[in-house]
Amino acid sequence: MDWSITYIVSQIFTILTYLFLALTYYAKNRKKLLILSFLSISANIIAYILLSAWSGVAMCIIALIRNVIFFVDEKKNGKRETINKTDIIILIVLYSISIVSAIFTYEGLYSLLSVFAAMLYTFSVWQKKTKMYKLLGMPVETLWLLYNLYIMSIFGVISESILLICAITGYWLEIKKNRKNE
To answer: Which residues of 63-96 are buried (b: 16+ CB within 10 A; e: fewer)?
Structure first.
């Protein structure tokens, strides 16, 4: 591993990525969740570019597009509790773009970890309930942790480990809140 200025700057952006992302697991509404996710993804794109982790860059760009689509849709159509036909079409289009991007950025089997993580994350934010987002956060964070091991991002591995704990506690708090409301 090279401790160049580029690598150090990538790790600073990695830390910012995970600070914003950790906050998403404690967001009380979908709008805040999407805004924090947008900030996290933007920092992550810069980190992955600096690490030459091209499948990660591609998945993050798709994630930015996804979040903008979801944010605009929610602003235009209001908060809905159910999934409609347009939502399904959006998910299919995003998955298709992810698969095509994976083909062009394929760097070996480990590069697919970012693709699977991004697709699972897309499904989690596509859901209308934050409980599903928090539940799916656990496998998503595990996949990103493994991807960060692959690209040798020290702070990515450390941060994903912390984020996995945040996902677990966020989900636990959601369950606790739902039990209290029953």
So the answer is: beebbeebbeeeeeeeeeeeeeeebeebbeebbe
Predicted TM-score (pTM) of this structure = 0.80
pLDDT confidence of residue 1: 61
In this model, does residue 74 exceed pLDDT 80? Answer: no
- Tokens 């597009």 -> residue: 65
Is pLDDT above 90 for 167?
no
Report the distance separating Cα 59 and Cα 117, nearest Å: 9
Whole-number Å distance between alpha carbons of 173 and 128: 18
Evaluate whether 51 touches 10 at the Cβ level (below 8 Å): yes
148-154: average pLDDT: 90
| Encoded tokens for 42 | 């933007």
- The conformation of residue 109, written as its DSSP 8-state character, comes to G
Q: What is the residue-wise DSSP string for 35-98?
A: HHHHHHHHHHHHHHHHTT-HHHHHHHHHHHHHHHHHHHHHHHH---SS--HHHHHHHHHHHHHH
Q: Answer for the pair 47, 10: CB distance below 8 angstroms, yes or no.
A: yes
